[in-house]
Write a structure and sequence with these properties.
Length: 54
């Protein structure tokens, strides 16, 4: 892509909240000058009050 361009990456929020994704987050920070994260919530695996909030 050279020095300019846009990449879209659609995934669940696991890489945002999990400790196991530290390497992915570090790589993204090193490779890109700007990162925008739109966390739409809505995790279907939660339950109870947390699920109602999302």
């Amino acid at each position: 892509m050279g020095d300019s361009g846009v990449i879209g990456f659609v995934t669940n929020a696991g890489f945002i909240e999990a400790n196991t994704a530290d390497g992915l987050r570090k790589c993204l920070v090193d490779e890109f000058s700007s990162i925008y994260v739109f966390h739409l919530r809505g995790n279907a695996r939660t339950s109870g009050e947390l699920r109602r909030k999302e």
